[in-house]
Amino acid sequence: MSRETLHLTVAAIVQFEHKFLLVEEIDKLSGQRVLNQPAGHVEQDEELLNAVKRELYEETGLLLEPTAWLGISQLKAANNHRYVRVNFVFEPTSLPQRYQPQDRDILALHWFSANELLQAALPVRSALVSDAVKLYQQGVRLPLGLIQPAR
């Protein structure tokens, strides 16, 4: 595997009032509308926590702080690329009245319970989406202090 096919990504698992925040976007491979957590690539020289907060803001307009993380997920995608995804938990106690995506690639924001997500009209982008929701429901919460800053 070449480094060009290995991707470090982050995802924001946002839970508020028993619902999860998902973004609607176009899958670049299939061209299909899909649901995903706010997520994206870690930029060069970017800390993981800064990357997930940036992606959350770009894709939803929300400025929130993570409370924990769920661990690391891996996916070998249809394009033969391997994605390593660090999943962060956001559990806000309130939300601003208005927020919207800053990124034009995000078509809409949706709030789904875990059951509603299973029955959603749109598919999830990958198994990583539903796997993160399952981990959250199982009570997995890793302390942020386990992620060491770059030195």
From TrEMBL:
Record-annotated Nudix hydrolase domain positions: 5-135
Pfam families (UniProt xref): NUDIX (PF00293)
Cofactor(s) in the UniProt record: Mg(2+)
Keyword set includes Hydrolase: yes
InterPro entries found in the cross-reference section: NUDIX_hydrolase-like_dom_sf (IPR015797), NUDIX_hydrolase_CS (IPR020084), NUDIX_hydrolase_dom (IPR000086)
Alphabetical UniProt keywords: Hydrolase
UniProt keyword annotation of Ion transport present: no
Name under which the protein is recorded: NUDIX domain-containing protein
Lineage, broadest ranks: Bacteria, Pseudomonadati, Pseudomonadota, Gammaproteobacteria, Chromatiales
